[in-house]
Amino acid sequence: MTIQTPKTERLTLLGSTGSIGDSTLDVVARHPQRFSIFALTAHRNGAKLAEQCLRFAPEWAVVGDAATAQQLETTLRAAGSRTQVAYGEAALLSAASDAQCDTVVAAIVGAAGLKPTLAAARAGKRILLANKEALVMSGALFMDAVRDHGATLLPVDSEHNAIFQCLPAGPQPHGGVTKITLTASGGPFRTREPATLEAVTPDEACAHPNWVMGRKISVDSATMMNKGLEVIEAHWLFGLPPDRIDVLIHPQSVIHSMVSYADGSVLAQLGRPDMRTPIAHALAFPGRIDSGVASLDLVEIAKLTFEHPDYQRFPCLKLAFDALRQGGNASAVLNAANEIAVEAFLERRIGFMRIAAVVAGVLARIPNSAAGSLDDVFETDAQARRYAGEEIARLGAGALAG
Ligand SMILES: NC(=O)c1ccc[n+]([C@@H]2O[C@H](COP(=O)([O-])OP(=O)(O)OC[C@H]3O[C@@H](n4cnc5c(N)ncnc54)[C@H](OP(=O)(O)O)[C@@H]3O)[C@@H](O)[C@H]2O)c1
Questions:
Q1: Ligand 1 pocket residue status of 109, Cβ below 6 Å
Q2: Would 130 disulfide with which of 20, 48, 213, 227, CB 3.0-4.6 Å?
Q3: What is the pTM of this model?
């Protein structure tokens, strides 16, 4: 008699070398009987990807360019690894859509994640979505692809995962939901004197009080553009209009989001600010598995506080709500302009408060139109990036001394 080893769930992890990638692999490593890795992908960090390949032995490792692939190949062969190496867009799309992969964790940062995540949707995969920018850019098109190809979309962003857990069943809200409330920590500048914000450094902006994350999302948290992108993400995931999506600042980051019902009930999901919890929830859904995160000690926390966001301090949040209300291509414009502005801030080419000014400037220049096809989305994205470069050149000159 032969004993059959139960089949593991085979994962492709897009963006494995990032912060979400690390947290996902930490959870996966706790459950070797349940999960195995089909493909790991990175952009240029071949050294970290090599370490991950040696530990998790994927079939495929994918990087962005030939030189990184060559180095990775050399390292892996020298260590006796059998992982195959590939590079470029076509390889990334196949890693996301290959028939041998069951689940795709979408954890690339920014617009670069859209094509592979969409490829996973079109291949009918189970998708664990962290890459909110993909959904912000392509909203209806992405959700249509999920529906038309029978894919399953599970939110990993902690707020959306919290809402998903508090809804009656499945990602679409059922009767009785009156509103959802996304909580936000308020980031590192919640109480800082507004007049001093223009001069903050990238390291200060990336020093988040509660979460450890990649640099782009850390800056987005400091401007609260991250919450704005999440409002748009929530609209598409849960099918609610903007006036039924609320944002509350909750500096302790213990309540990750809430759902209000017609009978006065409010359901909230609580936990430590550790992405392994929503990742483990989505990986095991509808079951529950150990994530390595300790449970909460509410007595130790003692106090939970809430306040309304101040649009003067956080103009990016208002820009995102406005873009969602406008519809059409406005969210794609917002996202692209923000990516370029954040990059310029991280490279110290513009001051912190000019991120919002660049985004507002680009939104004002691009007429609103329907985002009818993926080509339209990428055309808008490219135009917004070009205009953002021009706004940076105009606004940024002399922004930073020394
Ligand atoms: N971090 C969090 O706690 C958190 C929470 C909720 C949602 N999210 C969302 O999850 C996504 C990832 O965030 P993160 O904080 O993990 O970002 P990160 O630490 O910056 O990691 C980004 C990952 O994407 C890869 N990448 C970057 N540019 C790429 C490109 N052009 N093509 C292909 N791959 C590329 C990077 O590869 P290299 O390392 O080779 O550059 C890395 O693996 C973002 O959309 C973010 O909004 C993050």
A1: yes
A2: 20
A3: 0.96
